[in-house]
Amino acid sequence: MKKIITISRQFGSGGRTIGKEVAEKLGIPCYDQELIQKISEETGLDGDYIKENGEYTVYRGWFANAFLARDERGLSTQDYIWLAQLQIIQQLADKESCVIVGRCADYILRDRPNVLKTFIHADTAWRADRIVRVYGETDETPEKRLKDKDERRKAYYQRYTDMEMGDAVNYHISLDSGVIGLEKCVDIICDLYNNMEDE
Amino acid sequence: MKKIITISRQFGSGGRTIGKEVAEKLGIPCYDQELIQKISEETGLDGDYIKENGEYTVYRGWFANAFLARDERGLSTQDYIWLAQLQIIQQLADKESCVIVGRCADYILRDRPNVLKTFIHADTAWRADRIVRVYGETDETPEKRLKDKDERRKAYYQRYTDMEMGDAVNYHISLDSGVIGLEKCVDIICDLYNNMEDE
Predict the structure, then answer these.
(1) Binning pLDDT at 50, 70 and 90, where does residue B177 land?
(2) Which of B157, B173, B194 to mutate to test the interface with A (most CBs of A within 10 A)?
(3) Chain-chain contact of B174 with A179 (C-beta, under 8 angstroms)
């Protein structure tokens, strides 16, 4: 049976880095950017467009939203990306043990056994400091960037799933990477993954 | 510096058992029933009454609530218990390294360094099975008992703190004891506690 680790994360919490390091340690693939590439191939849409529309709600206001292009099934482009990523994530989980970062994989794979669902978070001050170091400065303050990303990810999650992002009961383990440290988070998740094998 | 582990938990999740085993392994005291005893001594109120009123809101309806006995400061008996447990938990944390189960200790000690805040949860089916085994049958179905306890604990938490119980960001680590297993939860928490010492 394939074993999957899903990593849901707050922006700037280091969840992506943790996912990569976990995958490397375990010798399994990590799907993050690679997932965007696959969705891009599947949908024919641009990678940057998918990055923005596959995890975040887009603020357009109700008027613009009402006039969003919809196909003959009544689906918006964002719905279309959702369906593509749903299918791709299920295919990946069928194919091989792996780490999947973000994109509601925890929800998409919720009924499957041998899925370790993780959530990585950290307080705003720690994340603000980290995003400036990792992603560089922008016109917006880091706090504003975090607030915007957090809200839009949460809204996206709520729109396409019936779960509340960040609600502890939705995950097998939730970790504060700022307090616990990225390396320790990696160790704990690898250990739990190895433990799954014994069942 | 004293090191404290707070264990917030869903009813039936095994959080109390985890707390006791963590304390035993680390050779530090675990405050659970002992806390009720202390609050009882401090307030002169009966232990069973404190158990019921120190962590759960009591459904009385607005009419009965409006006529609750209040002292000269306008405090109800529940407020009085809250103030006593707040003071006792702070004194305990000053005095010695320990494990504190429930009673909003995570909130009460939120600004103190060297506090490892944990949350233990599990899905309803697992907890329902466990409470029948551990606490025996009652007239109510286990599912109804869980729902009632969950809701009242959550409401109590919301009333006396400004935090949402079970919101992952409020804890350093949240664990699904049903999936991860009590023993593994104990190991992870002990490991994180020992790691705190190195800081």
Answers:
(1) very high
(2) B173
(3) no
More confident residue, B7 or B156: B7
DSSP letter string over B100-138? EESTTHHHHTTTSSSEEEEEEE--HHHHHHHHHHHH---
Q: Which residue in chain B is spatially nearest to A174 when comparing CA positions?
A: B174
Interchain CB distance below 8 Å, A123 and B169: yes
Tell me the mean pLDDT in the region A104-110.
93
The span from the CA of A183 to the CA of B51, in Å, is: 40
CB–CB contact A184 B172 (8 Å) = no
Contact residues on chain A for B169, CB-CB shorter than 8 A: 10, 121, 123, 166, 176
How far apart CA B144 and CA A115 sit, in angstroms, is 29
Boundaries of every domain in chain A: 4-196
Q: Which residues of B touch A153 (CB under 8 A)?
A: none
pLDDT at B100: 96
The domain B4-196 having CATH identifier 3.40.50.300: the answer here is yes
Distance CA B45, CA B81 (A): 9
> How many other C-beta atoms are found inside a 10 Å radius of the C-beta of residue A63?
7
CB within 8 Å: B173 and A169:
no
CB pairs under 8 A between A and B: 59
Question: How large is the C-alpha radius of gyration of chain A?
Answer: 17
ipTM above 0.90, yes or no: no
Residue-wise pLDDT for B19-51, tens only, equals: 999 999 999 999 988 888 888 888 888 888 888
Which residues share a beta bridge with A117? Answer: A6
A119 and B168 within 8 Å at the Cβ level: the answer is: yes
Owner of token pair 């109590």: B156
**Per the CB < 8 Å rule, is B168 touching A174?**
yes
Length of chain A in terms of residues written: 199
Residue among B24, B10, B36 nearest B123 (CA): B10
What kind and span of H or E run contains B4? strand B4-9
Q: What backbone torsions phi and psi does residue B99 show, to the nearest 5 degrees?
A: -105, 130
Model confidence, pTM: 0.90
**B81 neighbors B43 (Cβ within 8 angstroms):** yes
φ, ψ at A64 (rounded to 5°): -65, -40
Helix (H, G, I), strand (E, B) or coil at B3: coil
Output the six-digit token pair for B43.
Answer: 């307030």
